[in-house]
Amino acid sequence: MNKLNFFDDELFGLEKKGLYRTLRTCSKFKSSKLVLDGKELINFSSNNYLGLADDPILKEAACKAIEKYGCGSTASRLMCGNLALNEELEKRIAGFKRTEAALIFSSGYMANIGVISALMGRQDVIFADKYNHASLVDGCVLSRAKLIRYPHKDVKKLEQILKNTGKYVRRLIVTDSVFSMDGDIAPLPEIVELAKQYDCMVMIDDAHATGVLGKTGRGSLEYFGIPEEAVDIHMGTFGKALGSFGAYVAWSRRLIEFLINKARSFIFTTALPPSVIGSVIVAISILEMDNTRIKILNKNASYFRNQLRKEGFNILDTKTQIIPLIIGENNKAIQFSEFLMQNGIFAVAIRPPSVPLNTARIRFSITAAHSKEELGYTIGIIKKAGKKFGITQ
Ligand SMILES: *Cc1c(COP(=O)(O)O)cnc(C)c1O
Question: Which end of the chain is less congested by CB atoms within 10 angstroms, N or C?
């Protein structure tokens, strides 16, 4: 017996269930297109919502930062990696989010595991939406707090749970604002109200909302008109709409100091490289200067949603640029995605465990970089595929 046989068994099991994942090689991406395994395709899988990732202004800022500081930050923030650029960006984030202070983390994943595990411990309880991003789930598990997951966006059920949960020291409600697989939006006004009533902290993950939701892209609170003070912890990322990499947590100064001392994923890792920080600073400047890109994004996304709904596709309750086209069965979703690919369109099939059983889907990410022609062409191909695979009449 080979002690590594269990790998093969598990992989074979995944293959049988149509859940086997493989990597594809992307040799180039530019604006709304990418070259994948040698073929140019219209890209519906990137989170580059505002088309900033290859913007000349961001590229120039990254190069300038490299020339001035070099390629690496050489150490963690608490050692000598705290380049002045970090503090400049943190000031800009606090201004953008209208909070007292902000702290940069190396990625959204690290921000979420670091913040939750710093704040919560064994004697505490966390209430989490069932569809929360994996990084929030991992943060909860890492904290060792009691984790109670409530049904997706179900505030009635959440209230029942809050009422019936016994004594804990600290209580936290945590939710994505825009859900990454369904594109729907958490009922934040109700959640904030419940948090007040039941004495909980609230943490919101704005990864897909930063630079997207709200008139000027400040995120979910701007979208709902919720005052900043009503939410304790705002978290968001730079790797999606802002076109770069990294993440922030925006909060009160005192609590940022707490994280600098307590968040292990902040303390025990190398600071972001200068090029990344330089590009994020100008991305924020672009957002603060005008919201043209946000308007184009919203127009593109609502066109795409309306066309698909009109054709009778099930796209759940999406209200955003993330548009799930529900197929159901795993293998059919893969075939659907392959058909799109043959027609020059790249949109991946998402399968369990990323989404619930029997809701395999094609996930379309709409961006401001997509042209009207590209969107119209894609709708045409989807219509064809819908009939071919028996999804629509
Ligand atoms: C992408 C994402 C993250 C992780 O952010 P990274 O910077 O990519 O690590 C966290 N939360 C949500 C909701 C996300 O969609």
Answer: N
pLDDT in tens, 343-392: 999 999 998 888 999 999 999 999 999 999 999 999 999 999 999 999 99
The H or E element containing residue 254 is: helix 253-262
Binding site membership of 176 for ligand 1 (Cβ less than 6 Å): yes
267 dihedral zone (left: phi>0; alpha: psi -120 to 50; beta): alpha
374 within ligand 1 shell (Cβ under 6 A):
no
CA of 106 to the centre of ligand 1 (A): 11
Q: pTM above the 0.85 mark?
A: yes
CB atoms within 10 A of CB 39: 12
Count Cα neighbours of 96 within 13 Å in the Cβ-side half-sphere.
Answer: 34
| Cα 188 from chain centroid (whole Å) | 17
Query: Nearest C-alpha to atom 3 of ligand 1 is from which residue?
Result: 108
Closest CA to 55 of 363, 367, 333, 373: 367
Q: Is 182 in the pocket of ligand 1 (CB under 6 A)?
A: no
- Whether 265 is catalytic is no
Chain center to CA of 210: 9
pLDDT tens track for 275-321: 999 999 999 999 999 999 999 999 999 999 999 999 999 999 999 99
